[in-house]
# Entry
Amino acid sequence: MPERLRLVDLVNARLDGFLDERASHLAGIAEELSVFTDASRDLLSGGKRFRALFCYWGWHGVAGTVRPDDLLADLDDHPDLSSIIDAAAALEVFHAAALVHDDIMDNSDTRRGMPSVHRRFEAAHRSHEWAGSPTGYGTSSALMLGDLLLGWSDELLDEGLTALDDRSSARAARAEFQSMRTDVTMGQYLDILEEVAWRSAPETELLPRAHRVVVYKSAKYSIESPLALGALIAGGSLEQVSALRAFGLPLGVAFQLRDDLLGVFGDPSVTGKPAGDDLREGTRTVLIALARAELPAGAVRLIDELLGDSSLTEHQISTLQATIRESGAVDTVERIISRSVREAIAAIEDAPLSRAARSELIGLADLVSQRAH
# Structure
């Protein structure tokens, strides 16, 4: 745990310094642009830094096999320190960009207990009584911030990779980041496609299609790619990178399935999102697909009628929650999560990775799959 906290502190410090640099750049263009760095700081001040942690321990899994296992003890003297911290920070900035765009698409009001970015810009428009539409201004401004964060994540990664002596490792890491970016973007599209096109798909395909969204929208970029990115920066072998991928993908699935449960049943005071938020958004998750497969026709019609209605009342939310629970889908998802975690842990038990990394990754597996927010 102390090592985990120290790593988070290093990533946070790098993010703060990076945003300070970019704030100076924006201030040189126009003082009004401070709203972009202010919003970025607020968004990046939250979060659990899971992607950064997996990136670091993917690196350690490789680097720790040729150096002492207590790399964090001499981290300040390690020649690749700046590279791995920059890559870890770049993943957090990329995640922030994805959240901004995701909240626009989902029409979400809150993020991490604060107004979502587009709502933040809307509120500024209203408070200043500017001309035109607050909603249009909010959406347009948030889109630009999301795009800006995407560019900044590339800049951070490039700074880290430029410092690497091994250019082949740098190229492999860059290719991994690019692949991750494509995967999550297309996964996001598949998610919004399922919300509108699910009626045209055969019933038997709804579950595999929902699982496909889990893999590409979340599992790969939340855990698998950060692990692979770190390992590739360290010059990992095919065997080492493959073992980390075999750990990361099923754990990423478990991570997203836990998120899906929280999106329906999570406590708003803990999650920072309204109760039943996924139900109002109409997200066609694995949980929903499993519930529909087990429920009688009348209950299925109820789900299909209410799911995606942004004006759902608390009573309707409670009715949907009870219907989903009664289907047995929650228990099934919990079993899938447990099975996925076991599969992940088995993949690294005998892998050629550092002892410290294997121990830390097993601890993180429990943390991300059992979290309450």
Observations:
- The longest strand covers residues 110-111.
- The longest helix spans residues 167-197.
- The chain is about 75% helix and 0% strand.
